[in-house]
Amino acid sequence: MVLPGHVVSPGRSAVLLGLLFGLAGTSTSAVTVALPELAGDLGISAATAAWMVSGYAVALAVATPTHGRLADMLGIRLPLCLGIGAMSVGALVAALAPNFTVLMVARVVQGAGAATIPVLATALISVRWSGPTQGAALGRVAGVSAILSALGPLLGGALEAVGGWRWAVALPVIGALAIPPLWRAAPAGGTGERIDRIGAVLVALAASGLVLLLQSPSAGAVAGTVGAVLLVVGAPLLALRVRARPHGFLPRDIVTNTTVLRSAFATAAVPASWFALLLGVPLAAASWGWTPLATGLLLVPAAAVGLVSPSISRTLLTRFGSRRCIALACPTAVVALLVAAAGGAFASPVLLALAVALVTVAFGTGQPAMISSVSRAVPVGQRGVALGIATLVFLTGASVGAALVGGLATVVGIPAAFCLLVVLPVAGLVALLAGGPDREVAPA
Question: What pTM does this model have?
Answer without folding.
Answer: 0.77
